[in-house]
Amino acid sequence: MLVWILQTGEPLNCDGNQLRPMRAINLSKALVSRGHKVEIISTRFFHQEKRFRKNISNNILGINETLVDSPGYKSNISVSRLVDHHILSFNLLMNLLKRKNRPDIMFVGFPPIEWSLISIGYSFFKSIPIVIDVKDLWPDIFWDKEDINPLKKELIKFLFLPYRIYCVLIASLTDYITGPTELIANYLKNNYQNKFLSEILKNQDPKTFPSPIVPPKEEEQIKLDLVKTDPKECLNILFLGSLMSVYDFKTIKKSIEILNKKKIKIQLFIAGRGGSENYIKDIFKHIENVYFLGWISRKEAIDISLSCHLALAPYKNIKNYELNLVNKYIDYMSLGLPILSPLRGFAYELINKYEIGWNYPPKQASTLADIIIGIVESPQKIKLRSKNAMTLFKKNYKFDVVYDQLVNKLEQIANNK
Q1: Which distant-in-sequence residues (6+ apart) come within 8 Å of 206 by Cβ?
Q2: What is the spatial distance between Cα 371 and Cα 265, in angstroms, rounded to a whole number?
Q3: 389 and 410 housed in the same domain
């Protein structure tokens, strides 16, 4: 079977081995290992590093890669990014229309919305099965914010009306919708599908299924039996990820101040970079036991995790994360680190059901401080929940488990077309 993976904003094989593989590379390798042919269609502009890819070698590990041109942009939130996505999508359409061959199935990353719309249109007219892979809830993410003014929310929704119409077409004409959880896939379907359009044009409802975004196969094995420092001497907490505005670090700062006054020894290590890096550093500028490590590799993350007791995921409560299982949680599980999180929804239930960490109430610094004191006084609970996290990862979220299921699903879809 020939699979086209249309994915933007991710590292490709042509970028080298220094960047961590994401959905496109991981899925393509899983497909090739099962004897299938794969072409990744992506952008020449590299979103993560804000540069243009120059050289590309086809047929790397049996995977072809095609780059589509666009003007690029400097800021993630800007008019130039919207312009880039429209030009990129037009160039994608021109690329697809010139093709004589056709795949057995298309697997398309969402967003960008325009990119997904062109892919949907092409698949519809060519009668090619298509799966939309929802990573973030665009355009809803622009008005789905904590404590947003209702009038401002409605104004933003009005300004994004064209994108909402695009989403209606995407949700109505696709065959399948997937995402890290079935909740997020169902959100796109339930909020944007026009059933009349689906019945008239497709004669069927789009089907949904989950496909978590998990780490690549690891060469290093995490050893949970290593003796860590006593949390009563000093509790070490790790944050890994891009430093963005979606996190509530102010509550973390206040809780650390409370713990410091109570002489509870704690250290927070923040690893990563991002658009809100300076803002987050400013929050902690008078806190001496918070350390910024910058960007670190996966191997470095593994090394530092061996001396940490907990992992921090201080997401703000918005639907994009409440319905999602972001890869940060799976990364933490793969490191055997219990998770501290204020997030309601899917992640809350996961932590509670499998006892892989502790939930704390959003914006409640004193309650979080009390929870941390309880953790410090119960080191056996850390050990147990660390073991639970690793067990859950191996059972449900290892590369082989997730991508065997996803490849099986794509084979089933292609065979039933």
Answers
A1: 132, 171, 172, 174, 175, 176, 177, 189, 193, 198
A2: 14
A3: no
Confidence (pLDDT) at 57: 60
pLDDT at 55: 65
Work out the number of other CB atoms within 10 angstroms of the CB of residue 190: 10
How many domains is the chain built from? 2
**pLDDT score of 368:** 97
Check residue 60 and give its pLDDT.
Answer: 65
Same domain, 324 and 391: yes
Closest CA to 249 of 272, 274, 276: 276
Question: What is the β-pairing status of strands 2-6 and 207-210?
Answer: unpaired
Q: Which structure tokens are listed for 164?
A: 């909402």
User: Which stretches in the chain have pLDDT values below 70?
Assistant: 55-60, 218-227
Please give the residue range of the domain that contains residue 406. 2-214+398-415
The answer to whether residue 268 sits within a structural domain is yes
CATH number at residue 90: 3.40.50.2000
392 Cβ partners below 8 Å, 6+ apart? Answer: 333, 354, 356
Give the pLDDT confidence score for residue 342 in this predicted structure. Answer: 97
Contact predicate 107/131, CB 8 Å? yes
* 3 state SS of 123: helix
| Pair (384, 405) in one structural domain | no
* 253 lies in the same domain as 128: no
The torsion angle over the Cα atoms of residues 374, 378, 379 and 383, rounded to 10 degrees, is -100
Structure letter (DSSP) for residue 336:
T
Claim to verify: residue 258 and residue 172 sit in the same structural domain: no
Residue among 90, 103, 128, 124 at smallest CA distance from 40: 103
pLDDT given for residue 200 in this prediction = 85
Quick one: 93 and 125 in the same domain? yes
Q: For 64, how many CA atoms within 13 A lie in the half-sphere containing its CB?
A: 10
Residue 79 has what pLDDT? Answer: 85
Q: Which residues of 42-56 are buried (b: 16+ CB within 10 A; e: fewer)?
A: bbbbbbeeeeebeeb
User: Considering the entire predicted model, what is its pTM?
Assistant: 0.91
Any domain includes 315? yes
Write out the H or E segment, with its range, that includes residue 163.
helix 161-173
> How far apart, in whole angstroms, are the C-alpha atoms of residue 63 and residue 359?
42
CB 351 within 8 A of CB 341: yes
Q: From 81, 80, 84, select the one nearest 92 (Cα to Cα).
A: 84
Length of the chain: 417
Examine the domain organization and report whether 300 and 409 are in the same domain.
no
Q: What are phi and psi of 266, to 5 degrees?
A: -150, 145
> Is 114 found in the same domain as 34?
yes
